[in-house]
Amino acid sequence: PVAAAPPPPAPAPGVCLQAGVFNEQQADAVRRAAASLPAGSWRLEPVQLPGRWMVYVGKLADADAVRTKRSELRDLGVDTDRPGAALEPGLSLGRFSSEEAAQRALTDLGRKGVRTARVVQERRDTPAYLLRLPNADAALRQQVRGLRGALAGKELRGCE
Questions:
Q1: How many Cβ atoms are within 10 Å of 126's Cβ, its own excluded?
Q2: The CATH classification of domain 52-123, taken from the options 3.20.20, 3.40.50, 3.30.70, 2.60.120
């Protein structure tokens, strides 16, 4: 009797990979670059970046005023950070995912003696996108290497 030939090896299973988060302009570049990939192998999924709130001191007059205020706050036991370009010169006393959390922090800081801080919205809810490759086999992963420039420095990683 002749032995049956073994079945052909199953194709290597693909893995889900994603990269992002991309803003609208970056997503357009990804769309153009990904158009060279096999149809149905990728998609851009809309996501929402939630707004962010900050307890903020500013705008202050200049860098000297920032140094003076930072020193006063340090004496009160309050940590500070840079607020981001749009709010310079000034100081961030914390960032929060909700206005309510920022208001609570402001109240707590008031108990420490902080009088000049206020709550500002640092970022509004912002539409964004994730590039998702739901079933990336070895061949697709090789092709995706050619998209590196369009990925704006964001690396592919396993899907969450």
A1: 14
A2: 3.30.70
